[in-house]
Every structure is written in structure tokens, then in C-alpha cells.
């Protein structure tokens, strides 16, 4: 159970201006890295400035004329694993939290913005400092949903980076005229990428060509839905997308056909799978996947296809219990034998960041300060049950979750007491 209890990482004095001119200083001490090293990490501005042995980076600098007042925050991360922050590569925030409603959720601007913002903050609490949500445009939706995402994007500035993929249902023929106009307008308004599902259009090849024309005009990436059920159609799709490589992402490929992995490997595109999902929200008519299908995903990995994992649904019609937790997606990939723990976490962190067009992160000097501290003594342990988390975005702590586990009458039952992870018995998760 998660709560705002006080057993989580404790900050020192609040950040103040750094007299060196590099922004606030954040010192993370006693953190364990995935390779087993225990280090201190100094962050200045939005970058990692230095990584050294515990106590080796010295104290925080003092303010001139006030030697007892430091210029930043110090956070003790003993018992925590420090990792590159995950990213959410495939979400549908415009329909989040709709599963429990007796009827379709209202489409007012205020309600849409509230739902998108709440979904993004939920994902951020799990550690995703960069997020991409797919948004239906055109038809009865117009641009309302996209406008709500862009409003939330502004409200979340400094907390998380939110991207929007504009998805028209139809693009070809007379029926697609509205979709064509809405797509171009969406990209002018600020949608990050052009997307959709060609398989829902009567002319899938024509859909792709029109989408690519709009993407080239706007100089934006493409993020498409496909089941990958037809290798021949997939090969034609890959050929059409070739001029935009490497700015192409496909997913969720939930009905991956034999031979499709070779086509995708030759195409040089990233594939986003959805281990937690039973389908894809907001895409009526797209055949749902049957959850985590390990064998096809292993084929993708064997073929050398860069694999990314997203959450897909957050308590919507496709998955009424979706949690948007990247560590759960990584856990499912590892538990299903698709990837080892390290590669599974990479699928929700650096591979996801690359899919979003963002630079990779390492816990090393010079890299972006996009970090997740999770309670645990190893990556496998963190994936198995790391609930307490601290999230750093652009060098600033933006979220903290502390989990407390208590047992009734521990003396009489002779149950083990909580551990902080420093006595060899593991953390209190």
C-alpha cells in the first residue's frame, strides 16, 4: 500500500540558486546502481554533474556570506536503486479512467483536460518523466481531445514531458476529407507525431501515403498502430515508411504473423508492445491482442527488432485495471521470458525514450537528470515489488511515493522486522 508516509527518502534544505550559475544543486547520496555500486550523484540544473563514491563528492556548497546555508538539497537514498527514469511510450489518456463509468465519459474541455492531467500524473508517480499519448481526432471528436492534451501539456511543464500523437480514423476518399484537414491542423497546433491505424481505413496504403505527406510537411515523426497480422501488407507498410526512418514507431503488433519479425527487422523501425494490455483503447475494430504473447515477442527480439514496452490503457475499456506502471510492463517481459531484467527495464526506459525522440540516460556525468529511485537492492528485486519511489525530472524531484509495510503483533508471530536494505535482509517492500 502506498501512502505519503515519512519512511521514504528525506530531503535536506530546499533548493536555492547555485552561486556557480548552473541552477539548483541536488545531491543524492548512498544510492545503489544496477551494477551494484553504491554512489553519490550530484545534479546541477537539468544534468548529472558528477557520480562518485559515497562521501566523495563533498558537501553541498554554501551560500556566500552564509556558511551554514547550503545551495541545494541532499537526499539520502540508502536502500534505494537509482535508475534512468522510464518513459511511457504508448498511452491513451483521453479515455483514461472511463471503465467504471456507466456511459461514455463527457467530452467537455474541462473534463478531458482533468482526465488527461490525472492520467499523466499517475504515470509520473510511477516514474515516467516522458510520456506519449495517442489522441483521436476528426469525426465527432474534432480537435477537442487534442486541445485538452495540449492544455495538460502546458500545465505539466516542469513536471513531465507530454507528447501527443494525432490519430484520424479515416484519411482516404470523400469520407476521409475531414480527417485530412484535421490532421494538418492538429500538427500545426502542436501535436508531436502523426499516427493512427491504417487497417481501419478502406485503403490502408492510401492512408499511409496521406499520413506521410502530412508528416513530411510538418517535419514530425510517425507512430502507427498495426496488428502486424499480414506479412505482405506489413512489408508494403514498411517500404512506404522507409523514407522517415528512424523516426518511425509501430505497435502494438498484437497479432504478429509468422515472418513478420523479419520484415520489421529489415524495416529498421521500433516496435512498441503492450504487455499489460488486452487491446488498444479508442480503436474500435482493431483486433485485440491476447495479453502478453511471449513467443512472438521473443521472435522480434531474436530478429533484432528494437523492442519498446508501453502501458496502453489506464483503467479504460481495453483494460479496466490498467495501472500505467512501466515497472509492471518490464516485470511482465522478464517474467514471460521475453527479456532478462536488464533488457526488460531498458525497454521501458532508454528504448522508450529513443522511440519518443529523446536522448538516452545513464547515471553518469553529462547525461540528462531523468532518474528513478526505487526501493530495492537489485533490478530484479525492484521489478518484483518496488513500491517506494522518488522521481527526478530535469534535475528536480517531482514525485515521491512511500510505501509502509506493517505486521500485526510481530513479536508474538515472530515475523521479521522491517529492514532498510543495509543488513543483507533486503528492503521493507
Number of strands: 19
The structural class is: alpha/beta
Hey, roughly how much beta strand do the residues contain? Answer: 15-25%
Average pLDDT rating: 87
What general outline do the C-alpha atoms trace?
A: globular
The biggest beta sheet, please?
8 strands, parallel
Share of helix among residues? 25-40%
How large is the count of helical segments? 12
Give the radius of gyration.
23 Å
Strand order of the largest sheet: 9-10-11-12-13-14-15-16
User: N- to C-terminal separation?
Assistant: 10 Å
Low-confidence stretches: 1-7, 10-22, 287-291, 423-429
Would you write up a description of this structure?
- With about 425 residues, this protein is an alpha/beta fold.
- It is about 30% helix and about 25% strand.
- It contains twelve helices and 19 strands.
- The strands form four sheets. It has an eight-stranded parallel β-sheet with strand order 9-10-11-12-13-14-15-16. It has a five-stranded antiparallel β-sheet with strand order 1-19-18-17-8, covered by helices on one side. The chain has a four-stranded mixed β-sheet with strand order 4-3-2-7, with no helix packed on it.
- Helix 1 packs across helix 2, helix 3 runs parallel beside helix 4 and helix 4 packs parallel to helix 5.
- The longest helix has 18 residues.
- It is globular and about 65 Å long.
- The N and C termini lie close together (about 10 Å).
- The N terminus and C terminus are likely disordered.
